[in-house]
Amino acid sequence: MFDEVAAGYDRTNTVLSLGNDRLWRIATTRAIAPRPGQKILDLAAGTGASSVSLARSGAEVVAADFSPGMIAEGRRRHGGIPNLRFVEADATNLPFADGEFDTVTISFGLRNVNDPQKALAELLRVTAPGGKLVICEFSHPPRSGFRALYRFYNDRILPLVARGVSSNADAYDYLNESIRDWPDQATLSGWIRDAGWVDVAHRDLSFGIVALHRAHRPRG
């Protein structure tokens, strides 16, 4: 499914999010605070849009994704960036060494993993002691009035727009279902703690449509 939408994926996301995807990417990059020499794993990186913004800091960035089509599109677009490499990888069985990265991040991909709690444990394994986790993911607006408006948009408007701008509208029916079935902010925070992360915190973006979760691997 993701292979089929790779070419137009970023454009479609910008349209469907009403441009908010760029703001969410900026917030995520600021939370990561990339710097020269830092080793960063950007998991579920898709075509590498988020990875590029991290690599511009001088950090050494690995853009990993389960979809070969996404990886191929990312290499085609951004293969010339020397401190950015693309790797096909399963989030529940990462092909990296223990403690390999200073920071690990995943944006809008954790809910697509068949075992997200196992993925959180794998991310912990490949993070150096004291290293950082940043997750940007769809969530549930806490205010009931806005939550109802958001559900109306996802159920009625988003499918119509997706059929007009996407090469595979059925993929965005899945998107809507995965957002609806995904747990809320508190539940995801609990999963992160259960995986062994500490200093777990989150803040809402766009009134809770998205939540930015942060944590650290214990130093001991």
From TrEMBL:
Protein name, entry field: Demethylmenaquinone methyltransferase
Protein function: Methyltransferase required for the conversion of demethylmenaquinol (DMKH2) to menaquinol (MKH2).
Sorted UniProt keywords: Menaquinone biosynthesis, Methyltransferase, S-adenosyl-L-methionine, Transferase
Listed HAMAP family: MenG_UbiE_methyltr
Similarity remark: Belongs to the class I-like SAM-binding methyltransferase superfamily. MenG/UbiE family.
Molecular function GO terms recorded: demethylmenaquinone methyltransferase activity
Source organism of this protein record: Microbacterium saccharophilum
Gene expressing this chain: menG
Record EC number: 2.1.1.163
Keyword Methyltransferase: yes
Binding-site residues, S-adenosyl-L-methionine: T47, D65, D90, A91, S107
PROSITE patterns hit by this protein: SAM_MT_UBIE, UBIE_1
Gene3D superfamilies documented for this protein: Vaccinia Virus protein VP39
GO annotation terms (biological process): menaquinone biosynthetic process; methylation
Coiled coil regions, renumbered to chain: none
Pfam family membership, one: Ubie_methyltran
